Amino acid sequence: MGEPATAMLKPEAKSEPAGRRTSRWKKHLWGYLFILPAIVIFILFLWVPIIKGAVYSFFTIDFVKGNTFVGFDNYARVLHDPDVWTAVKNTLYYMFLTVIIGFWVPIVASIAISELRFFQGFARIAAYLPFVVPGVVLYGMWRWMYDPVGPINGLLSSFGVEPVSFISDGRWSMISIVFMETWQQFGSAMLIYLAGVLSIPRDWYEAAEIDGAGVWNRIRYITIPSIRNLIVLMFILQIIGTSQAYQSQLALLDGGPNNTTLTYALLIVKYAFNQLDYGSATALGMLMFIVLSLLGLLQFKMNKEDY
Amino acid sequence: MRKFSMVLMCLLLSASVLAACSGGSKTAGGDNQGSGSDGSGSGGTTATTDAGKSEDDITQKKITIKIHYPLPDQKDLRAQEDDKIKRFTEKYPNVTIVKDDWQYSVNEIGIKMASNEAPTFYNTFATEAQMLVERGWVADISDLYNKWEYKDEMNPLLQNQFMVDGKVYGVTQNGYITSTMINKALLDAKQVPVPPLDWTWDDMYNTAKGAADVKKGISGIAPMGKGNEAGWNWTNFLFEAGGEIQKVENGKYTAAFNSDAGVKALDFYKKLRWEANAIPKDWALGWSDALNAFQQGRTAMVIAGAYDVIDAALNQGGLKPENVLAYPMPAAEKGGKHYGILGGNYLVINPNATKDEQEMAFRYITFDYFTDKGLEALEGNIQERKSNNKYFVPAPLNYFKDDSEYGKKVAAIYDKYDNVYKYDPNLFGLLDGKPEAQYGTQDYYGAMSNVVQELFSKKDTDSKKQLDDAAKLVQTKFFDEIKPQQ
Fold first, then answer.
1. Which residue in A186, A187, A196 sits closest to A231, CA to CA?
2. ipTM, 2 decimals?
3. Fold observed for domain A74-303
4. Ranges for the ABC transmembrane type-1 domain (chain A) (predicted)?
């Protein structure tokens, strides 16, 4: 098992003799073999598709007759498509809404739950439950909630408000989607925040209480500063996640009405699977990949600083 | 030793991942002659057992075909298919049948073809014909079809939908001409008279306006407003007004839907939406949403293929047959044509399959066509539904001609059972089927969906401007790119 301690203390030679290299290789061989399946899976299902995507973006893809190299034509086509800019605007608007409507909800929920003296477990489960609702059920349920004669409009009409077309009215459709997704997804983020909040040493709070700090001051001066890095990290992850959103927009409205919920990722799906133009779809995907890589690098850098 | 076992397992796992990911060698790429197949073709395998004796006799060859098979919940259809497989393999003992319950989806067909995983034959719809032919995702079966003894007895109205530039690409199963279905109970509830069968846009307008009950969330009519279906629904009105999707001059395809007829059709939609207030307040309904609304009694009228709507309304929605009326699309004016888009179900053959596989698939598809066994299977299906208290809804159009000998035999079976839905006999004389544009239809539908959605969301849209903008978009983005089949 391993090299003798004396060997490890020796200074590294500039050029290792062949025997030493073999010995080092042997030392790490088992480790490499253990991670081999993971490497194979990553290469096959992550890197090969990424590289193939990059290659495909320069071709007209025809799986039967064969692909044709078209240079930057696919990029030119998508950059001249007015729908692309509509989709970019819609995606930015959607990302903005998710921050305004949804980002603070799990933070508040986690802090509120952490302050509970009783039923904390129940509250955690209750908040997380919407996350396990399958997509099909979720969309059916919220379609009913938003129905012109559904419960939300029923409530509004009891206050004398005219029924609102939450789904079909372009001014409301994206907002309605964000409310629905916030309801479903805040529980999952809440658990992560809750773990962060509960890891703050209790004696800090006890000391603050002795000094006369109330709930608000405890939250303001202890809780929020302690989870600040987590909040920033979750914010970046949310930006990355929401920039790729398309499921709800596709299932509820197929990008309508009149393209108001057409997100960038949905446009990629439409290019690929409605127009069957895989080349242009991958070109759009590559443009997105570049932007998201920058965000990914930022997240990576933050992780590095944290640990 | 333990470490060694773990590493061995890791290596085995890696090997199996690699094996699972490696595709079978394709027979695609132009060489689908079937000779010398190594058995890895997508559709199945072919091997000559006795090269000297049976090289040309397909019945002597070992062939595997992957067939289109019903979904697990379609138990009666599965039982029928199993019976057909049994009879087919008795006649062709060298053929191995592999069942594949993948159902055609435009979102999945590209992936299926790319991965060489599409069955030897698969189901599809009339609306897909041009796209599939343009992409080369269906085999040219002209030779097989032209040699078939029953080719002249096929219903030409349907069969011609999958004939492009004189070549045959599919075999029809059944079809429809897009119609309007009316929920009579909702009309009765508001004391709205049932319109005449030979109806017009004005009749539709009055019926929709009268039947709508906004407070209860019931609309008079639910024109589809989501996805390409929105454009598809509206195109019926375009045709009725005398318009066309595109025109072809000297091989160039030009958008033609921004004509006066198009404006007239779009203005009719505006009247239904803003004047009659007859469409659902939440109008973003796709095909299945609209059908659901109809079967739930939330809309008095819906536009689609009659079979799909009626079958769902009777067997899932629990509506009574006397309350579900099938109408032709209304004529724009009295005496006008009741144009509806032709639609239907087809079976097409995978071009990646070898020639032998393609031929055997063709034999399988047509195995029960025009035979007494086909009649027995049909009767069994009706009896099965009767025993389950379900209705049988015949397709309005069949692969055979209704006035043929075979058609009369089928009609005699329908007459024997009271759970068979009966169309108004005068309906068929009023149906005017019109095929879709030959190229770029789905792209056009997609563009028109936005036009319809804008019209439904904004009150004072300019129909002419909307159509001109859409025509310009469709022309530059799609029609100018069309390269017709050679």
1. A196
2. 0.73
3. MetI-like fold (1.10.3720)
4. 88-299
